[in-house]
Amino acid sequence: MHPPDASPPKATSLIEPEVAALSLNRAQPPNATHTSGNTVRQHLSEWWWLWWNNAYLGSAALVMLCSPNRYWLKTAHIVTMHVYARLRWPLVFFVVITGLSSTVITQIVAQTLSRYGMGALALALLIRVMLVEVIPIAAALVVAIKLTIPLGAELSRLRRTQHLNRLREAGADALRLEFLPRLLMGIYGVVMFSIMGSAIVTLTMYQGIYGYTWAGHETFTHVFARVMTPFFTFIFAGKAIAFGYIVALIPLTSAFSSTRFGLRRDTELATLARMLLLLMAVQVLSLVINYY
Predict the structure, then answer these.
(1) Residue whose C-alpha is closest to residue 254's, from 97, 170, 149, 169
(2) Which of 40, 70, 92, 172 has a CA that sits 20 to 30 A from residue 178's CA?
(3) Residues 6+ positions from 199 with CB-CB distance below 8 Å
(4) At what angle do helices 39-66 and 180-210 cross, to 10 degrees?
(5) What is the DSSP string of 20-60?
(6) Burial bucket for residue 69 (CB in 10 Å: 0-12, 13-18, 19+)
(7) What stretch or stretches form a coiled coil here (predicted)?
Protein backbone atom coordinates (compact mmCIF):
# COMPACT_ATOMS: atom_id res chain seq x y z
CA MET A 1 0.00 0.00 0.00
CA HIS A 2 1.34 3.39 -0.93
CA PRO A 3 0.58 6.70 0.82
CA PRO A 4 -1.84 9.00 -1.00
CA ASP A 5 0.78 11.61 -1.82
CA ALA A 6 3.14 9.19 -3.51
CA SER A 7 3.00 8.34 -7.18
CA PRO A 8 1.88 4.72 -7.65
CA PRO A 9 4.70 2.52 -8.91
CA LYS A 10 4.46 0.45 -12.03
CA ALA A 11 2.84 -2.98 -11.92
CA THR A 12 2.52 -3.26 -8.16
CA SER A 13 0.21 -5.57 -6.30
CA LEU A 14 -2.59 -3.83 -4.44
CA ILE A 15 -2.86 -6.18 -1.47
CA GLU A 16 -1.07 -9.23 -0.17
CA PRO A 17 -2.65 -12.68 -0.61
CA GLU A 18 -4.64 -13.28 2.56
CA VAL A 19 -7.63 -15.37 1.58
CA ALA A 20 -7.76 -18.84 0.07
CA ALA A 21 -10.19 -18.98 -2.79
CA LEU A 22 -10.71 -19.86 -6.40
CA SER A 23 -7.91 -20.52 -8.82
CA LEU A 24 -7.53 -18.05 -11.66
CA ASN A 25 -8.21 -19.59 -15.02
CA ARG A 26 -8.69 -17.66 -18.20
CA ALA A 27 -12.16 -17.84 -19.65
CA GLN A 28 -12.45 -20.29 -22.50
CA PRO A 29 -15.29 -19.67 -24.95
CA PRO A 30 -17.27 -22.68 -26.02
CA ASN A 31 -15.87 -24.47 -29.05
CA ALA A 32 -12.94 -21.99 -29.33
CA THR A 33 -10.57 -24.31 -31.17
CA HIS A 34 -7.67 -23.28 -33.34
CA THR A 35 -9.03 -22.81 -36.82
CA SER A 36 -6.90 -22.77 -39.91
CA GLY A 37 -9.48 -21.27 -42.26
CA ASN A 38 -9.34 -18.01 -44.11
CA THR A 39 -8.34 -14.69 -42.59
CA VAL A 40 -11.90 -13.45 -42.16
CA ARG A 41 -12.82 -16.47 -40.09
CA GLN A 42 -9.72 -16.02 -37.97
CA HIS A 43 -10.54 -12.37 -37.37
CA LEU A 44 -14.05 -13.30 -36.32
CA SER A 45 -12.65 -15.90 -33.94
CA GLU A 46 -10.30 -13.29 -32.46
CA TRP A 47 -13.13 -10.87 -31.81
CA TRP A 48 -15.40 -13.62 -30.45
CA TRP A 49 -12.70 -14.64 -28.00
CA LEU A 50 -12.19 -11.02 -26.93
CA TRP A 51 -15.84 -10.26 -26.24
CA TRP A 52 -16.38 -13.64 -24.60
CA ASN A 53 -13.47 -12.87 -22.28
CA ASN A 54 -15.03 -9.50 -21.43
CA ALA A 55 -18.40 -11.11 -20.69
CA TYR A 56 -16.89 -13.91 -18.61
CA LEU A 57 -14.73 -11.69 -16.41
CA GLY A 58 -17.49 -9.10 -16.14
CA SER A 59 -19.88 -11.76 -14.86
CA ALA A 60 -17.25 -13.07 -12.44
CA ALA A 61 -16.75 -9.54 -11.12
CA LEU A 62 -20.50 -9.13 -10.55
CA VAL A 63 -20.57 -12.39 -8.61
CA MET A 64 -17.67 -11.22 -6.43
CA LEU A 65 -19.33 -7.86 -5.85
CA CYS A 66 -22.48 -9.61 -4.62
CA SER A 67 -20.60 -12.15 -2.47
CA PRO A 68 -20.03 -11.49 1.24
CA ASN A 69 -16.42 -10.93 2.15
CA ARG A 70 -14.84 -10.13 5.49
CA TYR A 71 -12.18 -8.03 3.72
CA TRP A 72 -14.64 -5.51 2.27
CA LEU A 73 -13.57 -2.74 4.66
CA LYS A 74 -9.92 -3.22 3.78
CA THR A 75 -10.76 -3.32 0.08
CA ALA A 76 -12.80 -0.11 0.39
CA HIS A 77 -9.89 1.59 2.14
CA ILE A 78 -7.49 0.49 -0.59
CA VAL A 79 -9.85 1.71 -3.31
CA THR A 80 -10.36 5.16 -1.79
CA MET A 81 -6.67 5.67 -1.06
CA HIS A 82 -5.55 4.71 -4.55
CA VAL A 83 -8.28 6.74 -6.24
CA TYR A 84 -7.27 9.77 -4.18
CA ALA A 85 -3.60 9.27 -5.04
CA ARG A 86 -4.23 8.91 -8.77
CA LEU A 87 -7.19 11.23 -9.39
CA ARG A 88 -6.94 14.15 -6.97
CA TRP A 89 -5.45 16.55 -9.52
CA PRO A 90 -7.52 15.32 -12.49
CA LEU A 91 -10.60 15.89 -10.29
CA VAL A 92 -9.54 19.50 -9.61
CA PHE A 93 -9.02 20.17 -13.31
CA PHE A 94 -12.29 18.41 -14.18
CA VAL A 95 -14.25 20.57 -11.74
CA VAL A 96 -12.64 23.79 -13.00
CA ILE A 97 -13.16 22.97 -16.68
CA THR A 98 -16.72 21.77 -16.02
CA GLY A 99 -17.55 24.97 -14.17
CA LEU A 100 -16.14 27.21 -16.90
CA SER A 101 -17.81 25.24 -19.69
CA SER A 102 -21.15 25.17 -17.90
CA THR A 103 -21.02 28.93 -17.28
CA VAL A 104 -20.40 29.67 -20.96
CA ILE A 105 -23.01 27.19 -22.23
CA THR A 106 -25.61 28.47 -19.75
CA GLN A 107 -25.16 32.03 -20.98
CA ILE A 108 -25.36 30.98 -24.63
CA VAL A 109 -28.50 28.88 -24.17
CA ALA A 110 -30.27 31.38 -21.87
CA GLN A 111 -29.63 34.38 -24.12
CA THR A 112 -30.50 32.51 -27.31
CA LEU A 113 -33.81 31.20 -25.99
CA SER A 114 -34.67 34.60 -24.48
CA ARG A 115 -34.41 36.22 -27.90
CA TYR A 116 -37.08 33.85 -29.18
CA GLY A 117 -39.32 34.26 -26.14
CA MET A 118 -38.50 30.83 -24.71
CA GLY A 119 -36.30 31.85 -21.79
CA ALA A 120 -38.43 29.84 -19.37
CA LEU A 121 -37.30 26.63 -21.08
CA ALA A 122 -33.58 27.31 -20.65
CA LEU A 123 -33.23 25.78 -17.20
CA ALA A 124 -35.06 22.55 -18.03
CA LEU A 125 -33.08 22.17 -21.24
CA LEU A 126 -29.76 22.70 -19.48
CA ILE A 127 -30.62 20.20 -16.76
CA ARG A 128 -31.58 17.54 -19.29
CA VAL A 129 -28.55 18.05 -21.52
CA MET A 130 -25.67 19.26 -19.36
CA LEU A 131 -26.47 17.56 -16.07
CA VAL A 132 -28.00 14.28 -17.17
CA GLU A 133 -26.32 13.53 -20.50
CA VAL A 134 -22.96 15.33 -20.72
CA ILE A 135 -21.53 15.05 -17.20
CA PRO A 136 -21.63 11.22 -16.81
CA ILE A 137 -19.97 10.50 -20.14
CA ALA A 138 -17.38 13.25 -19.62
CA ALA A 139 -16.58 11.80 -16.20
CA ALA A 140 -16.29 8.30 -17.67
CA LEU A 141 -13.86 9.41 -20.38
CA VAL A 142 -11.63 11.31 -17.94
CA VAL A 143 -11.50 8.38 -15.52
CA ALA A 144 -10.79 5.97 -18.38
CA ILE A 145 -7.85 8.01 -19.67
CA LYS A 146 -6.37 8.94 -16.31
CA LEU A 147 -7.08 5.80 -14.28
CA THR A 148 -8.55 2.64 -15.77
CA ILE A 149 -6.48 2.28 -18.96
CA PRO A 150 -3.24 2.66 -16.92
CA LEU A 151 -4.67 0.15 -14.41
CA GLY A 152 -5.27 -2.30 -17.24
CA ALA A 153 -1.67 -1.91 -18.42
CA GLU A 154 -0.48 -2.40 -14.85
CA LEU A 155 -2.50 -5.60 -14.46
CA SER A 156 -1.16 -6.85 -17.78
CA ARG A 157 2.41 -6.38 -16.54
CA LEU A 158 1.55 -8.26 -13.34
CA ARG A 159 0.27 -11.13 -15.45
CA ARG A 160 3.36 -11.17 -17.67
CA THR A 161 5.63 -11.28 -14.61
CA GLN A 162 3.71 -14.34 -13.32
CA HIS A 163 2.51 -12.49 -10.21
CA LEU A 164 -1.06 -13.72 -10.67
CA ASN A 165 0.14 -17.31 -11.09
CA ARG A 166 2.14 -17.02 -7.88
CA LEU A 167 -0.98 -15.88 -6.05
CA ARG A 168 -2.89 -18.86 -7.41
CA GLU A 169 -0.13 -21.25 -6.39
CA ALA A 170 -0.18 -19.73 -2.90
CA GLY A 171 -3.88 -20.59 -2.63
CA ALA A 172 -5.14 -17.01 -2.96
CA ASP A 173 -7.85 -15.60 -5.22
CA ALA A 174 -6.01 -13.40 -7.70
CA LEU A 175 -9.23 -12.02 -9.14
CA ARG A 176 -10.41 -10.83 -5.74
CA LEU A 177 -7.02 -9.48 -4.70
CA GLU A 178 -5.88 -7.75 -7.88
CA PHE A 179 -8.80 -7.54 -10.34
CA LEU A 180 -11.73 -6.56 -8.11
CA PRO A 181 -10.09 -3.57 -6.33
CA ARG A 182 -9.10 -2.08 -9.68
CA LEU A 183 -12.63 -2.56 -10.98
CA LEU A 184 -14.03 -0.79 -7.92
CA MET A 185 -11.56 2.06 -8.45
CA GLY A 186 -13.02 2.73 -11.88
CA ILE A 187 -16.63 2.62 -10.66
CA TYR A 188 -15.88 4.81 -7.66
CA GLY A 189 -13.94 7.28 -9.80
CA VAL A 190 -16.74 7.75 -12.35
CA VAL A 191 -19.41 8.11 -9.65
CA MET A 192 -17.27 10.63 -7.74
CA PHE A 193 -16.55 12.69 -10.87
CA SER A 194 -20.24 12.60 -11.84
CA ILE A 195 -21.34 13.82 -8.42
CA MET A 196 -18.79 16.63 -8.32
CA GLY A 197 -19.49 17.64 -11.91
CA SER A 198 -23.26 17.62 -11.33
CA ALA A 199 -22.91 19.83 -8.26
CA ILE A 200 -20.76 22.36 -10.12
CA VAL A 201 -23.09 22.38 -13.14
CA THR A 202 -26.12 22.93 -10.90
CA LEU A 203 -24.47 25.91 -9.17
CA THR A 204 -23.30 27.49 -12.41
CA MET A 205 -26.72 27.05 -14.02
CA TYR A 206 -28.40 28.85 -11.13
CA GLN A 207 -25.82 31.64 -11.14
CA GLY A 208 -25.97 32.02 -14.91
CA ILE A 209 -29.76 32.37 -15.00
CA TYR A 210 -30.62 34.10 -11.69
CA GLY A 211 -27.31 35.67 -10.71
CA TYR A 212 -25.94 35.98 -7.18
CA THR A 213 -29.32 36.18 -5.47
CA TRP A 214 -31.80 33.90 -3.73
CA ALA A 215 -34.70 35.38 -5.67
CA GLY A 216 -34.83 32.47 -8.09
CA HIS A 217 -34.43 29.71 -5.51
CA GLU A 218 -38.09 28.70 -5.46
CA THR A 219 -38.42 28.68 -9.25
CA PHE A 220 -35.14 26.82 -9.67
CA THR A 221 -36.02 24.06 -7.21
CA HIS A 222 -39.49 23.71 -8.76
CA VAL A 223 -38.10 23.25 -12.28
CA PHE A 224 -35.31 20.98 -11.04
CA ALA A 225 -37.80 18.74 -9.22
CA ARG A 226 -40.07 18.55 -12.27
CA VAL A 227 -37.18 17.43 -14.47
CA MET A 228 -35.36 15.16 -12.03
CA THR A 229 -38.23 12.85 -11.15
CA PRO A 230 -37.44 9.71 -9.11
CA PHE A 231 -37.44 7.59 -12.27
CA PHE A 232 -35.26 10.08 -14.16
CA THR A 233 -32.85 10.25 -11.21
CA PHE A 234 -32.71 6.46 -11.01
CA ILE A 235 -31.77 6.24 -14.70
CA PHE A 236 -29.14 8.94 -14.22
CA ALA A 237 -27.56 7.12 -11.26
CA GLY A 238 -27.72 3.77 -13.03
CA LYS A 239 -26.06 5.24 -16.11
CA ALA A 240 -23.20 6.68 -14.04
CA ILE A 241 -22.60 3.31 -12.37
CA ALA A 242 -22.83 1.47 -15.70
CA PHE A 243 -20.34 3.88 -17.25
CA GLY A 244 -17.96 3.27 -14.35
CA TYR A 245 -18.33 -0.49 -14.74
CA ILE A 246 -17.61 -0.32 -18.48
CA VAL A 247 -14.58 1.96 -18.31
CA ALA A 248 -13.11 -0.17 -15.53
CA LEU A 249 -13.93 -3.59 -16.96
CA ILE A 250 -12.76 -3.25 -20.58
CA PRO A 251 -9.12 -2.27 -19.86
CA LEU A 252 -8.81 -4.84 -17.07
CA THR A 253 -10.15 -7.73 -19.14
CA SER A 254 -7.73 -6.77 -21.92
CA ALA A 255 -4.94 -7.73 -19.51
CA PHE A 256 -6.17 -11.35 -19.67
CA SER A 257 -6.55 -11.45 -23.46
CA SER A 258 -3.97 -12.99 -25.78
CA THR A 259 -4.05 -13.18 -29.57
CA ARG A 260 -4.94 -16.63 -30.87
CA PHE A 261 -3.81 -16.24 -34.48
CA GLY A 262 -1.53 -13.22 -34.21
CA LEU A 263 -4.04 -11.04 -36.05
CA ARG A 264 -4.89 -8.54 -33.34
CA ARG A 265 -2.76 -6.38 -31.10
CA ASP A 266 -4.83 -5.17 -28.17
CA THR A 267 -3.55 -1.59 -27.99
CA GLU A 268 -4.84 1.14 -25.72
CA LEU A 269 -6.53 2.73 -28.74
CA ALA A 270 -8.43 -0.50 -29.48
CA THR A 271 -9.41 -0.74 -25.82
CA LEU A 272 -10.71 2.83 -25.91
CA ALA A 273 -12.68 2.08 -29.09
CA ARG A 274 -14.44 -0.91 -27.50
CA MET A 275 -15.11 1.18 -24.43
CA LEU A 276 -16.68 3.97 -26.49
CA LEU A 277 -18.85 1.44 -28.31
CA LEU A 278 -20.33 0.17 -25.05
CA LEU A 279 -20.66 3.69 -23.61
CA MET A 280 -22.63 4.78 -26.66
CA ALA A 281 -24.85 1.71 -26.38
CA VAL A 282 -25.67 2.53 -22.74
CA GLN A 283 -26.19 6.20 -23.63
CA VAL A 284 -28.65 5.36 -26.41
CA LEU A 285 -30.46 2.88 -24.15
CA SER A 286 -30.85 5.51 -21.42
CA LEU A 287 -32.21 8.03 -23.95
CA VAL A 288 -34.75 5.49 -25.17
CA ILE A 289 -35.86 4.71 -21.61
CA ASN A 290 -36.09 8.38 -20.61
CA TYR A 291 -37.87 9.79 -23.64
CA TYR A 292 -39.77 6.92 -25.20
Answers:
(1) 149
(2) 92
(3) none
(4) 80
(5) B---------TT-----S-HHHHHHHHHHHHHHHHHHHHHH
(6) middle
(7) none
100, 203 contact by CB (below 8 A):
no
| Residue-wise burial string across 225-250, b where 16 or more C-beta atoms lie within 10 A, e elsewhere | eebeeeebeebbeebbebbbbbbbbb
CA distance 126 to 201: 9
Q: Domain total for the chain?
A: 1
**pTM of the shown model:** 0.81
CA 36 to chain centre: 37
Rg, C-alpha atoms of the chain? 22
Contact by Cβ (8 Å): 169, 24: no
Residue 156 falls inside a structural domain: yes
Pairwise CA distance, residues 116 & 159, whole Å: 60
Which SS3 state, helix, strand or coil, does residue 26 take? coil
Name which of 129, 109, 104, 127 is nearest 119 in CA terms.
Answer: 109
CA distance 124 to 13: 47
28: confidence class by pLDDT, cuts 50, 70, 90: very low
**Residue 143 near residue 82 (C-beta atoms within 8 A):** no
> Is 173 within a domain?
yes
Q: Which amino acid does the sequence have at 21?
A: A
Q: Report d(CA 63, CA 130) in Å as an integer.
A: 34
Tell whether 25 is covered by a domain: no
Q: Spell out where the chain has E strands.
A: none
Model confidence over 187-197: pLDDT tens digits?
999 999 999 99
